[in-house]
């Protein structure tokens, strides 16, 4: 018999009754029932119930042992009587009567419980992550992550993609987020950067003649944490293809993602790969108030400006006097009560807004109810109801001003209404493509044109006219779209991608429009530009986020619940005490001096 186990804690079944076995694992919990000890022994594979009778060596050992101690036991498998069968456990029809037991690793008093799933402060959970990972729900989520990655890899290989590894130490580049810098010992004063993404390398692989590349790529960005974004590092299914159109990219990755969600989605409906809706960016903003819309929510925003022009409700009429200003409506089926309207108004104020205008329609009342309805009159209130396709018992909420400023709040209000009224069908994974992103946007903070998405994208604009563009022609520039696209599922952006700009003269012009001189482009992207000068194929790809895919499949709201050893929100590893100080000798070798921050 093996030194530690003849079976795992999830292996024994009724057919194993009367066998002599050896098991090893953690003491999950123990119960004293009438002087007999019942111990749940847990390992990676499951739980087996042990029984230790008074007077036995095993009883004495378990009586003094703390939960989460590691033990090895020998005993006999016996069938449980019918009334004690545990149908929740795969091993629930048997138990092991202990003959002997040995402590392999005694546990001290626990800083957090492993049995059960109680809420515990995140700081404690991250500091003792090795204990947190023993908890059933988190353990399953990490296993799911491994299975999802394996499935993604298999599906990509089956489609003819080849896996490559790209460098971790590379050059710093202006890709939109802060780099993590690594000082060079051999080259004083110079730094490597950890890659924000393998963007340039995967494009160079296409130039090198490798037709279909992928990798499960680690990426590094020095940015703040969010619920759906881990600070520091994350993983993505990075891929690139040569001689492809946007449609070819969609046809390649759609079946991979739909297949993985069907495989691990616990029976939830999944949008078929060939039915992912294609929603232009401008349409997504105007209909959903977001470029990552949750299509489980059936509500669609509507421009109702014409009903408010020229008077009636003075506030909205004055707002509409300014160019580009509008009034948008959020329909609220079954929300037609003053109590709900007041609740939404209070929510809006909690979001930093002055309030949320509304109309609701109720039985026996001409037009609509509420201050706005009284100001605009029954004819216009009825016209709004008709435009929105609403009925008696429904409501509508309004936001007004510059849509470029208020659209995000309108999107939040759309989701809030759907959640409050239980309008969304949550039992599905609803995918879509967001396409036709603007190539550029005006940065109000820096008072200049900047890239809005991916600087390496091919502009969807006549190439000769693009090269002749005046860099000060804001009206034309801000209306240029690019061959850029995002995959969105249930309101979560899974990936960004693009057909790449593979022509040096167009790339130089694209960066010139965004304020980067030719010399900067040559310095930062010289390797890729030089490669393009020696014959580059049209190519494109994308990079779905592995962490976000697993987060959706695991049904959790925080991305740290699907990462083995995550940072906290301050980008700290509380378990390993990183980042930490280094010795003066290390700093000297790297030609670095730390300047102490002055106290304010």
What does this structure look like?
- The chain is an alpha+beta fold and 600 residues long.
- It has an eight-stranded mixed sheet, sandwiched between helices. It has a five-stranded mixed barrel with strand order 1-2-3-5-4.
- Strand 2 (36-43) and strand 3 form a beta hairpin.
- Helix 4 (136-158) runs antiparallel to helix 6, helix 5 runs parallel beside helix 16 and helix 15 (504-513) packs antiparallel against helix 16 (518-532).
- The radius of gyration is 30 Å and the shape is globular.
- The relative contact order is 0.11.
- The mean pLDDT is 94.
Structure in a nutshell:
The chain is of the alpha+beta class.
Count of discrete alpha- or pi-helical segments spanning 4 or more residues: 18
| Strand residues, percent | 15-25%
Strand order of the largest sheet: 6-9-10-23-22-21-18-12
Whole-Å distance between the termini?
67 Å
Q: Could you tell me the number of beta strands?
A: 23
């Amino acid at each position: 018999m093996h030194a530690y186990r003849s079976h795992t804690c999830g292996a024994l079944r009724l057919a194993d009754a009367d066998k002599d076995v050896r098991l090893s694992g953690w003491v999950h919990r123990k119960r004293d029932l009438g002087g007999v000890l019942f111990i749940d022994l847990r390992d990676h594979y499951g739980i087996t119930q042990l029984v230790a009778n008074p007077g036995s060596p095993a009883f004495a050992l378990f009586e003094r042992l703390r939960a989460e101690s590691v033990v090895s036991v020998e005993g006999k498998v016996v069938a449980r009587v019918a009334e004690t069968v545990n149908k929740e456990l795969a091993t629930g029809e048997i138990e092991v009567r202990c003959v002997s037991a040995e402590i392999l690793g005694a546990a001290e008093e626990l800083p957090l419980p492993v049995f059960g799933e109680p809420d515990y402060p995140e700081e404690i959970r991250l500091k003792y992550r090795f204990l947190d990972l023993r908890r059933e729900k988190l353990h399953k989520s990490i296993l799911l992550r491994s299975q999802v990655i394996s499935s993604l890899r298999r599906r990509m290989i089956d489609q003819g993609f080849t896996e490559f590894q790209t460098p971790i130490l590379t050059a710093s580049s202006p890709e939109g987020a802060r780099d993590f810098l690594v000082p060079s010992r051999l080259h004083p004063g110079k730094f490597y950067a950890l890659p924000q993404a393998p963007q340039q390398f995967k494009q160079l692989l296409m130039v090198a003649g490798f037709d279909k590349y992928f990798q499960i790529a680690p990426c590094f960005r020095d940015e703040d944490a969010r619920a759906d974004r881990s600070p520091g590092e994350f993983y993505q299914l990075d891929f690139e293809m040569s001689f492809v159109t946007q449609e070819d990219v969609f046809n390649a990755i759609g079946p991979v993602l739909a297949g993985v969600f069907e495989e691990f989605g616990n029976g939830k409906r999944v949008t078929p790969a060939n039915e992912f809706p294609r929603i232009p960016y401008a349409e997504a903003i105007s209909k959903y108030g977001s470029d990552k819309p949750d299509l489980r929510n059936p509500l669609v925003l509507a421009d109702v400006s014409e009903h408010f022009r020229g008077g009636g409700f003075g506030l909205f009429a004055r707002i509409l006097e300014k160019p580009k200003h509008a009034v948008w409506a959020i329909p609220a089926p079954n929300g037609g009560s003053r109590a709900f309207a007041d609740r939404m108004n209070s929510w809006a104020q909690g979001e930093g807004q002055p309030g949320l205008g509304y109309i609701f329609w109720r039985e026996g009342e001409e037009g609509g109810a509420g201050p706005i309805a009284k100001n605009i009159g029954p004819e216009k209130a009825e016209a709004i109801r008709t435009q929105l396709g609403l009925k008696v018992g429904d409501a509508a909420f309004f936001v007004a001003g510059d849509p470029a400023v208020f659209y995000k709040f309108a999107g939040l209000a759309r989701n809030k209404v759907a959640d409050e009224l239980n309008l969304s069908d949550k039992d599905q994974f609803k995918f879509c493509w967001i396409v036709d992103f603007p190539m550029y946007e005006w940065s109000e903070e820096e008072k200049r044109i900047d890239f809005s998405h991916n600087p390496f994208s091919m502009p969807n604009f006549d190439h000769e006219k693009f090269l002749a563009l005046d860099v000060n022609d804001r009206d034309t520039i801000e209306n240029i779209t690019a061959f850029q696209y995002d995959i969105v599922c249930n309101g979560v952006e899974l990936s960004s991608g693009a057909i790449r700009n593979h022509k040096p003269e167009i790339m130089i012009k694209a960066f010139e429009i965004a304020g980067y001189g030719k010399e900067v482009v040559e310095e930062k992207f010289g390797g890729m530009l030089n490669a393009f000068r020696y014959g580059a194929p049209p190519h494109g790809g994308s990079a779905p986020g592995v962490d976000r895919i697993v987060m959706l499949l695991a049904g959790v709201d925080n991305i740290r619940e699907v990462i083995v050893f995550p940072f906290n929100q301050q980008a700290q590893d509380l378990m390993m005490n990183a980042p930490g100080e280094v010795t003066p000798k290390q700093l000297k070798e790297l030609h670095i001096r730390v300047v102490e921050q002055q106290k304010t």
